[in-house]
Amino acid sequence: MTDLTKIPCTIVTGFLGAGKTTLVRNLLQNAQGRRLAVLVNEFGDIGFDGSFIEGCGISGCTEDDIVELPNGCICCTVADDFVPALTKLLDRPNPPEHILIETSGLALPKPLVTAFNWPAIRSRVTVDGVIAVVDGPALAAGFFADDPEALAVQRGADNSVDHDNPLEEVFEDQLLCADMILLNKSDLMTADDKARVKADIAAHLPRSVKIIETDHSFVDTALILGLKAAAEGDLAARPSHHDEGEHDHDDFESIAIPVGIVSSAEALASRVGKAADADGVLRIKGFVPVEGRPMRLVVQGVGRRIAHHYDRPWTNGEDRQGRLVVIGLKGFDRASVEAALAG
Ligand SMILES: Nc1nc2c(ncn2[C@@H]2O[C@H](COP(=O)(O)OP(=O)(O)OP(=O)(O)O)[C@@H](O)[C@H]2O)c(=O)[nH]1
Fold first, then answer.
1. How far is the CA of 164 from the centre of ligand 1 (A)?
2. The pTM is what?
3. Which terminus of the chain is more exposed, N or C, with fewer CB under 10 A?
4. Domain 7-237 class in CATH
């Protein structure tokens, strides 16, 4: 039974670059009259996701409605960061009617769901649903299965531990916790790939969960908000690789790299493409100034796929310093990344 006095929260999970921020932006744009607020947490933070959501110019959505949680892992800093940030939202004179929580692509959702049982918040909020966004083409290409190259980088960084595949573990934990799965980037998949990947996901799930194909995370808001899962009371149905104890994020690391003004979007994309080829690199994203352009250039690298667009004008007084965050497996080839980005 859902307690209607509790404010529903939707947790958006999914691996690096799957389309979580895109989903959150879509939901804000199609809020259907709901007063929404967003909590965003990133790994290797340069404030990208929060800034990118704010940069979207959605009417009725103010900066105050987007709360960035400090860099770190939302699932590990529940007491210090998450509970206080959530409480602050709830204590507003005009609190949100529904809260979206975008976790980092490396976060495990289950510890976050568990946090909803904390005394400070349990009578006030409920987990309406956990939505897992899946990068369909990456899954179809076997990205989350054992990857000999990735494991070699991993082992090179740390000979003492016989790692399981860290990508696979994070990815599976996210799926195992989900109340709904978006098979995203359907525009980049063949019908055969979609059918194969859907069957594969369904075979691994502990219970029946709806899988919806999406293009740019577009889905009817009514299908996502209002699932009434009360997930915090249903933890046993959500197995995790980490049920037996603590986890850490030592398998991954990130760097933020300053980038000066670039001559053109294409020139930068070419450098980012080379950086993405370096061993162990998983995700590159950021904002960069381009010569003669009043707009800031958003650059997105997911695996080896690079995209860019201008999102909004630089504001007066804003420091026009470009910054890219690079996230990879621990021990990723920083020197090659830095050399490639320097051009
Ligand atoms: N072709 C295609 N690209 C997509 C789709 N959905 C998202 N993208 C692109 O994928 C990139 C990453 O999308 P985000 O929404 O930032 O992904 P994310 O999961 O928030 O990424 P992290 O927060 O870094 O983990 C962006 O360049 C998006 O425009 C899709 O359905 N098709």
1. 26
2. 0.91
3. N
4. alpha beta
